[in-house]
Amino acid sequence: MSSSQHAQTSSDTGFSSADSEADIAVIGAGIIGAACALELSRCGLRVLMLDRDPPGRGASYGNAGHMATEQVFPIADASLLKRIPGMLLDPLGALRLDWRYLPTITPWLCRLLWNLRPEPYRHSTKGLQALNEASLPAWRELLDSIGQGELLRDEGSLLVHERNDTKDELAAVAVRMQKQGVPVESLPREEVLRRAPGLTEAVRGGLFFPDTGHVTDPHFLVKALMEAAEQAGARFVQADVSNGRTVNGGVRLETSRGALAVPRVLVAGGAHSAPLVAALTGTTVPLDTERGYHLMLPRETERLPLAVTSLERRFIMTPMDKGLRLAGTVEFAGLERPARMQRARQLLELAQGLFAQPLDDDDASPWMGFRPSLPDSLPVIDRAGPEGRVLLAFGHHHLGLTQAAITARLVASFVADDSFALSTPSVPSDSAFTGSVSRAVRDTALPSLAPYRLGRFA
Ligand SMILES: Cc1cc2nc3c(=O)[nH]c(=O)nc-3n(C[C@H](O)[C@H](O)[C@H](O)COP(=O)(O)OP(=O)(O)OC[C@H]3O[C@@H](n4cnc5c(N)ncnc54)[C@H](O)[C@@H]3O)c2cc1C
Fold first, then answer.
1. What is the pLDDT of residues 350-385, one digit of tens each?
2. CATH number of 3-60+218-286+377-457: 3.20.20.70, 3.30.565.10, 3.50.50.60, 3.40.50.2300?
3. Ligand 1 midpoint to CA 331 (Å)
């Protein structure tokens, strides 16, 4: 049964007995929760997925689809600081701060600045790079295993520049990447235009990142993972989880369908994770959101063969099955304030300047989503709470799509830990739970979990 059917047919009050027998409840059916649910199901766990919305309607719905493995540096660096005032004043700028949100975001911004010191910056870079280097192979294997390999185009991506005075900036990016061991090739204008023929001759050159790629439909990707998880035995129920607490031998969740007791949970609620993490672990995480926008151009299905980012205009254009997606911008305005869809429409103005022929914006649709961002640019991937019953996978900021498959492997690797089985006294003897991890998880040299521990915020 598909996830949407489950959502429709599940009773509006309470949970079925099969739901209540789950070994683990995964809260959040975005790209992270869906990939984790699939890997955990493959370990033999009975997985119950909970989301207040149908699967894949959060940030994972509208991201740029870029497998951005080249982005190994934290979200801010010292050089960006100088440019921030100009960016904030530019109405087409990539950065916007809702000034009413300034008091709320200030502590987060202070922590972001604190993390620009050389040692934390190096630490975050190392943590990001470890995940990114493992990301594309993990995705390739996961997608091939569910027969959806064609969703991933791992043929690289371009970063282009247009102005003479940004030549040095582009060269500096290349040097920085090379020093960090990120594969990158510098391309002259002719080569950029050969690879992306629709671009304007005003483009002066670019960088090609061979070990990157894009997915052709991020929303469909979540749905495909959910379907595969369901085929592996997982169940989806649409429910809002309003609270939770650890109790003797398990976790009790308060939901819009009533209370639910399960042996353990995985919090994968994206930008909405913090209250549940606090309730279940006692740790307050400095999770905030960098809101981002996209504009989908459904008539532009043939314009680009690969994802192209503009150095000066600071946004990305990704070719997808349903059109060309223009995406980017960072807006600090929290989870509650309404979207400013003019920011999505501004992306069209930015994109028009990059093509030789005007883009067709008929039926263009704008969208806004919440990137889940922690001030050290690293996600939380961990086990916490009594007997490690609370699993955590959230805070992937600009890289949640890129890092979802490897995150899911790391989460599944917890199952191999002896304490995982021991903490499941309520699992009935006829459970399919084997305590064994899938071959993909077992055979992969996984990144160390040390940089992603919750304890760094305790
Ligand atoms: C404009 C934009 C462009 C981006 N481009 C890229 C890109 O090119 N490459 C890349 O790697 N990343 C990109 N990202 C980032 C990426 O989209 C996110 O990091 C990723 O989607 C986060 O996935 P998630 O599953 O953690 O969160 P989400 O997709 O937001 O899913 C969380 C889910 O949890 C549910 N939920 C939360 N709390 C509860 C609760 N209490 N009860 C029930 N349900 C709950 C929500 O309803 C939601 O469905 C982009 C983001 C944006 C906004």
1. 999 999 999 999 999 999 999 999 999 999 999 999
2. 3.50.50.60
3. 15
Return the residue whose CA atom lies nearest to atom 19 of ligand 1.
400
Any alpha helices (H) in 146-244, and if so which ranges?
167-179, 189-195, 218-231
The CATH 3.30.9.10 domain(s) of the chain lie at 76-107+152-213+289-373
Check residue 54 and give its pLDDT.
98
Q: Render pLDDT for 136-189 as a digit per residue (tens, 0 to 9).
A: 999 999 999 999 999 999 999 999 999 999 999 999 999 999 999 999 999 999
Whole-model pTM over 0.85:
yes
At residue 83 the predicted structure's pLDDT band, cuts being 50, 70 and 90, is confident
Pocket test for ligand 1, best of 36, 48, 50, 51 (most atoms within 8 A of CB): 51
Q: At a CB cut-off of 8 Å and minimum separation 6, what does 103 contact? A: none
CB 372 less than 6 A from any atom of ligand 1? yes
How many whole angstroms separate alpha carbon 212 and alpha carbon 76? Answer: 21
Could you tell me which residues come within 8 angstroms of residue 96 by beta carbon, excluding any fewer than 6 positions away? 88, 329, 330, 331, 332, 333, 340, 343
Mention every residue, 6+ apart, whose C-beta is less than 8 A from residue 20.
Answer: 260, 261, 262
Q: Which ligand 1 atom sits closest to the C-alpha of 271?
A: 30
